Task: structure prediction
Amino acid sequence: MATVQQQGFVEERSKPTRGQLRNADRLRALVQSWFEEADVTLDGDRPWDFQIKHPKVLERAIAEGSLGLGEAYMDGWWECERLDEFFARVLRARLDERVRNPSLVWRALKARLINLQSVRRAWHVGEVHYDLGSDFFEAMLDPYMAYSCGYWANAKTLEEAQVAKLDLICRKLGLEPGMRLLDIGCGWGSLMRYAAEHYGVECVGLTISKEQAAWGQKRCAGLPVRFILADYRTFNVDGKERFDRIASVGMFEHVGVRNYKAYFAMARRSLRDDGLFLLHTIGKNRRGGGTDPWIEKYIFPNGELPSIGEVADASEHWFVMEDLHNFGADYDKTLMAWYERFEAAWPRFRERYGERFYRMWRYYLLACAGTFRARTNQLWQFVFSPNGVPGGYRRLS
Result:
């Protein structure tokens, strides 16, 4: 009896019984009835249709939920030309709610019982994700290396959208020459570099990625920009250092609900009484529910998306919320632009990363684009002040 082993799955090649065939037919009929609500067809001929390549893929997806579906794609058990549109349609139809995966309940409970984003654990995402290689991200991102949502209101290219986002943040913060800006989770330094070049500010950035810090410090040579390799909780513990402005762009997703209050406390002790703090983060529509198991395992270990209510609850002791801006639909365009660049650059990286990584990264970018297209994920920019801006805050858009 021959066997085939794929990434830990071992399947016996034997002739299925009549009962097994009947069960497989029933499962296929059930899944197809669900897919009809999203205008998706099993083995259809449209770009967003689900192409079955392994007879047990539906059983695996139903049994293991999001994790099983994603791993099955990585293993080549199914194909879809337009994963982005497939996920947008499935999520708009709320088909994800039909499959209740017990692991989601456990992950949500675990996030409340265990500090998945402790100081020790916080460094893991830097090692797994951000330290993949700056040349890889450089091929996928814009020249400023902004790894967060662009602002597409008047932009036609990724470069224009990212510059528009960076300038939008600087204007919302009212940056002026001579100010000091703290960037919590600064990445490769895109915001600090832009703010120093165009607004004449002095910048300090915190990151947990050695690769990002080394690349960013080199690119910011000659500018008043300094990278510090540190977890936010260990920075400025005595509160003696104060900044005129603080920004945090695409980092809050790694903080975790158990640490939100510590995060806002750190921002408050580091901000002048007349300062402003801008928080740019992906968010979810409802609190609870845990992190998607596939994303948590393969892309962002220990990540957790906040809800608006959770941000409000954690920040209200320390700040006045002056402004809230949602442009989550722009993340769809940003992710699709990253995907196009990733595909174009892939021949350079194929030998280094291999086919399974390619399928993982393709799934990541396109599935995430689908979540923003379906509006199940959001992108928010909050502006906070310690005591309320005298006369009121006016957004510059």
The chain has a mean pLDDT of 88. The chain has two domains: 3-100, 118-330+376-385.
